[in-house]
């Protein structure tokens, strides 16, 4: 028999929730218990603690966090969760013994109602830059532009010399499009989500509507695949700047 205390939650910790443009408050759940047994200390090897919803501690799908294994001298466990819906959480503990055997789950008395704490945030506008090596007029170089997320809305494209800039969802689509002349439109559904041609006196183009694109690697990566063609009329490196809003972290 294990007398136990109720679970509780502490103040929220605010963390950016990956993949969504909002912040979720992180809640901490704490379980404490005491333990006595007629088994010798060398037999008892520790405890497993779970936090769950519903009525069945054996239902793994109802767990709100991974099970926590601790040593035989530990009597308190804390976990952190970032709930997106309200839930009533319980805790249960079982003892683990040498050889792999375990006791039955003991449900701790008490429950705690955990409510989501979602705080809307305004995505930040950032500049993403890349520069090619020295290119002959009409020559092209591929650039992999690092971004802080996996989907972006491009508001402005600027180059320091006239250039033809294309943006793609994958490197493979960029390769497939590499033979297309500037006078031809891209084939539909070939992964290009934006292209511009800058010119003398018009090196900075504000996009309306803006270009929206996502990295479609598997798994997605924080990369925009770009192809840059020098159109300055002479040999030159090309610096490209994307002013964008990251919409998927």
How many individual domains?
A: 2
Distance N terminus to C terminus? 47 Å
Helix proportion: under 10%
Q: Number of helical runs? A: 1
Judged by helices, strands and strand pairing, the structural class is mainly beta
Based on Cα principal axes, name the global outline: elongated
Architecture of the largest domain, CATH level 2?
Sandwich
Identify the CATH class of the largest domain: Mainly Beta
- Main sheet makeup: 5 strands, antiparallel
3D structure, described in words:
This protein has one helix at residues 171-176; strands at residues 8-9, 13-16, 22-32, 44-52, 68-70, 76-81, 87-97, 106-107, 112-114, 118-120, 125-131, 140-146, 151-159, 163-168, 192-197, 204-214, 223-230, 239-248. It has 249 residues and is mostly beta strands. The protein has two domains: 8-120, Immunoglobulin-like (Sandwich), CATH 2.60.40; 125-248, Jelly Rolls. Strands 1, 2, 3, 6 and 10 form a five-stranded antiparallel beta sheet that branches. A hairpin with an 8-residue loop joins strand 7 (87-97) and strand 8. The chain is elongated and about 90 Å long. Residues 1-23 have low confidence and may be disordered.
Summarize the structure.
With 249 residues, the protein is mainly beta. Helices cover 2% and strands 47% of the residues.
Q: What are the salient characteristics of this protein?
A:
249 residues; mainly beta; Immunoglobulin-like; Jelly Rolls; five-stranded antiparallel sheet; 1 helix; 2% helix; 47% strand; elongated; disordered N terminus
């Amino acid at each position: 028999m294990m007398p136990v205390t109720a679970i509780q939650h502490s103040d929220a910790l605010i963390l950016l929730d990956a993949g969504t443009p909002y912040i979720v408050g992180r809640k901490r759940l704490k379980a404490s218990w005491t333990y006595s047994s007629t088994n010798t200390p060398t037999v008892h090897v520790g405890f497993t603690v779970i936090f769950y919803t519903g009525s069945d501690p054996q239902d793994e799908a109802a767990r709100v966090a991974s099970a926590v294994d601790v040593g035989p001298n530990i009597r308190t466990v804390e976990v952190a969760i970032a709930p997106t819906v309200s839930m009533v959480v319980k805790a249960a503990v079982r003892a683990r013994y040498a050889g792999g055997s375990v006791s039955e789950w003991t449900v701790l008395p008490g429950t705690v109602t955990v409510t989501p704490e979602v705080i809307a945030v305004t995505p930040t506008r950032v500049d993403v830059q890349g520069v090619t090596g020295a290119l002959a007029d009409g020559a092209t170089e591929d650039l992999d532009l690092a971004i802080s997320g996996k989907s972006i809305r491009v508001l402005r494209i600027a180059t320091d010399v006239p250039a033809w800039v294309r943006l793609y969802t994958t490197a493979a689509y960029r390769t497939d499009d590499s033979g297309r002349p500037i006078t031809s439109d891209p084939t539909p559904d070939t992964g290009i989500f934006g292209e511009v041609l800058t010119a003398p006196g018009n090196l900075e183009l504000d996009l309306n509507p803006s270009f929206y694109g996502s990295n479609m690697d598997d798994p997605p990566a924080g990369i925009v695949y770009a192809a840059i063609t020098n159109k300055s009329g002479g040999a030159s490196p090309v610096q490209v700047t994307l002013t964008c809003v990251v919409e998927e972290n």
